[in-house]
C-alpha cells in the first residue's frame, strides 16, 4: 500500500509541533512531526526518548524529525498540580524555554512559521502569540470528545449539558452525536468530576486546562483567527461529529488516519518511553500460538493495576483458558502485584506477562484474537486499524466515549461494565471475551465489522486519501496566512 508522503511546508514553511511528554500524546505528535518538521516535548519526555542526549539535553535529529526539547518547569515529569504560585513559576519557565527554542531554530536558519500543540499546553499558545505565529491545536482525542467538551464549556441546549453533568443517568444529545450518550457511562469522565466537584487534584487540573484551552481558542487576542484545529481522526470514522463541530470552530482538519502507525508500513513509527521486553521473546511466543487464539490485555501508559484488579484479570483469564499476553508496566507496579505475577507464571503458564511491548506489532500478529483495552484513543485507533475485536473497559477521561464508539458506533467491541469501585471482574472479562470472539452471533457480527473498519481505515491512510488531503489543506492554509502576513 502506498504510504502518504511527507507534506512538509514548502517555501520555508516550518512547523514546530509541541507535545506533552507522555506516550499517549507523544505517539500521535511524533507521527505528525514525521510529516511536518520539528518536535518539541518537555525535557522529562525528551530524556526518556534519548537517554544518550542527557545530561546536556541536546537537540537530536533522526534524519526525519528534528527534536528540540524545552523545559516545562517540571523536569522530573511529575504532574503539575501545585499551587497558584507554583503554576505561575512553571509557566514562566516553560514560556522562556520554548521561546528560546523558537529563537534557536531561527538562528539555525529554520525559522518557525506555525506552532502546533497537543492538548492543554497554554504556555505553548502564549509563546506562539508572543512570536506572532499562527497556532493550530492538535486534538489527539476523537472528534466526538471535542464536541462534548466544546458544548460543555459553551453551554449548549436546555441549560447546557453542564447543568446535567452531575446526573449520571442524563442522556446528552448534542449536534454531531448520532445517538444520545449517557453522562455517567459514555461522556468524558472529567465533565461529571467538574460538575460535582469530586475530581481528584489531577482531574481538576486537567479540567482547568481544557477550560483555559477553549477560552484561548475563543479569544482573538490570544490565538490569531482563524483558529486551526487538527483532529486525530478520519472522516470515515467520525464524519458526523466533524461536520457538526465545524460551524463552531471553523478550520477543522481531520488528519488522523495517516498518523495511525501501521506495522509493516515500512516506517519506524514508534518511540517507546518504557523499556520493552525483548521483542524477539514475545514475538516468538506469539508465533508459537494458534491463529486467532491470544487475548491481549493492555491498559496503556498511565493506568496501573491494584492487587484486586490484577487478581480479577487473572481469574478471568483462567476461566477463559486461552493463551494471553498481558502488559503490566514496571513503573507503578506494587510489590503485591509483583508477587502475584511471579506466582502466576507457575499457575497459569499458557500466557506471558510483559512490561511493555510494541503494541501495533502485537495487534498485527495473526495469533491475536481479542484486545482487552482501557480505550485510550491511540489504542482504540490501533485496534480498529489492525481489525482486532475488542473488549472495551474504559476507566476515565475520554475513554468512556471511545468505548461507546468502539461498541455502539462501529460494532467492533463488547462493552465491559466495571464495578462501582472501578474494578473489572474476572467474570465480566471472561463474559465479554466470549461474546467478542466466541462462537455466538455477536462474535460473528463483530468479526465482520472489524474487517470492514480495518479496510476503511487502511483506505484512509493511502496516499491521496481524505486524511492526507486534509493535512495538505492545512499546510496550504498556513502558507496562505504567511502570504497575507508578509504582504
Ligand atoms: O505495551 C505497550 C502498551 C501501550 N503501547 C502504546 O502506548 C500508547 C498508549 O496510548 P493510549 O492508548 O492513548 O493510552 P494512554 O497512554 O492511557 O493515553 C492517554 O492519552 C490518550 C490521548 O490523549 C487518551 O486517549 C487516554 O485516555 C490517556 O490515558 C498506544 O499508542 C500503544 O500502542 C505500546 O506501544 N506498548
UniProtKB/TrEMBL annotation:
Pfam hit, one: UDPGT
GO molecular function, one term: quercetin 3-O-glucosyltransferase activity
Keyword set, alphabetical order: Glycosyltransferase, Transferase
Documented EC number(s): 2.4.1.-
Top-level division of the source organism's lineage: Eukaryota
Disordered as annotated region, ranges: 68-92
PANTHER family in the record: GLUCOSYL/GLUCURONOSYL TRANSFERASES (PTHR11926), GLYCOSYLTRANSFERASE (PTHR11926:SF1505)
Homology family: Belongs to the UDP-glycosyltransferase family.
Name recorded for this polypeptide: Glycosyltransferase
Organism: Triticum turgidum subsp. durum (Durum wheat)
Amino acid at each position: 500500500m502506498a504510504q502518504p508522503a511527507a507534506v512538509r511546508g514548502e517555501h520555508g514553511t516550518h512547523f514546530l509541533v509541541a507535545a506533552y511528554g507522555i506516550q499517549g500524546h507523544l505517539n500521535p505528535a511524533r507521527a505528525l512531526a514525521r510529516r511536518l518538521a520539528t518536535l518539541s516535548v518537555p525535557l522529562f519526555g525528551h530524556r526518556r526518548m534519548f537517554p544518550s542526549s542527557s545530561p546536556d539535553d541536546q537537540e537530536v535529529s533522526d534524519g526525519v524529525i528534528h527534536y528540540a526539547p524545552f523545559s516545562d518547569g517540571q523536569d522530573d515529569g511529575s504532574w503539575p498540580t501545585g499551587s497558584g504560585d507554583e503554576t505561575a513559576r512553571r509557566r514562566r519557565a516553560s514560556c522562556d524555554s520554548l521561546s528560546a527554542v523558537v529563537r534557536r531554530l531561527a538562528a539555525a536558519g529554520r525559522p518557525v512559521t506555525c506552532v502546533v500543540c497537543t492538548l492543554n499546553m497554554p504556555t505553548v499558545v502564549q509563546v506562539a502569540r508572543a512570536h506572532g505565529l499562527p497556532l493550530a491545536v492538535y486534538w489527539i482525542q476523537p472528534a466526538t470528545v471535542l464536541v462534548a467538551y466544546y458544548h460543555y464549556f459553551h453551554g449548549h441546549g436546555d441549560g447546557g449539558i453542564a447543568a446535567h453533568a452531575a446526573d449520571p443517568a442524563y442522556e446528552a444529545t448534542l449536534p454531531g452525536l448520532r445517538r444520545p450518550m449517557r453522562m455517567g457511562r459514555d461522556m468524558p469522565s472529567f465533565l461529571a468530576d467538574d460538575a460535582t466537584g469530586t475530581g481528584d487534584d489531577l482531574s481538576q487540573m486537567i479540567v482547568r486546562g481544557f477550560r483555559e484551552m477553549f477560552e484561548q481558542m475563543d479569544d482573538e487576542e490570544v490565538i490569531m483567527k482563524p483558529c486551526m484545529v487538527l483532529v486525530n481522526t478520519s472522516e470515515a470514522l467520525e464524519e458526523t461529529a466533524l461536520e457538526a463541530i465545524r460551524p463552531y470552530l471553523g478550520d477543522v482538519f481531520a488528519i488522523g488516519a495517516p498518523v495511525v502507525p501501521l506495522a509493516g508500513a515500512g516506517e519506524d513509527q514508534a518511540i517507546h518511553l518504557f523499556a520493552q521486553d525483548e521483542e524477539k521473546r514475545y514475538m516468538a511466543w506469539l508465533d508459537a500460538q494458534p491463529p486467532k487464539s491470544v487475548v491481549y490485555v493492555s491498559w496503556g501508559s498511565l493506568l496501573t493495576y491494584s492487587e484486586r484488579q490484577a487478581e480479577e484479570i487473572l481469574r478471568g483469564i483462567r476461566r477463559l483458558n486461552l493463551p494471553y499476553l498481558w502488559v503490566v508496566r514496571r513503573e507503578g507496579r506494587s510489590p503485591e502485584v509483583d508477587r502475584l505475577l511471579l506466582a502466576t507464571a507457575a499457575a497459569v503458564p499458557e500466557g506471558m506477562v510483559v512490561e511493555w511491548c510494541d503494541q501495533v506489532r502485537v495487534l498485527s500478529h495473526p495469533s491475536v484474537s481479542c484486545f482487552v483495552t482501557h480505550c485510550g484513543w491511540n489504542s482504540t485507533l490501533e485496534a480498529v486499524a489492525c481489525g482486532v475485536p475488542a473488549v472495551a473497559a474504559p476507566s476515565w477521561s475520554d475513554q468512556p466515549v471511545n468505548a461507546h464508539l468502539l461498541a455502539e458506533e462501529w460494532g467492533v467491541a463488547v462493552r465491559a461494565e466495571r464495578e462501582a469501585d472501578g474494578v473489572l471482574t474476572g467474570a465480566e472479562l471472561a463474559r465479554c471475551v466470549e461474546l467478542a470472539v466466541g462462537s455466538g452471533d455477536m462474535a460473528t457480527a463483530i468479526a465482520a465489522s472489524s474487517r470492514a473498519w480495518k479496510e476503511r481505515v487502511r483506505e484512509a491512510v493511502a496516499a491521496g486519501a481524505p486524511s492526507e488531503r486534509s493535512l495538505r489543506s492545512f499546510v496550504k492554509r498556513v502558507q496562505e496566512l504567511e502570504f497575507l502576513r508578509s504582504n
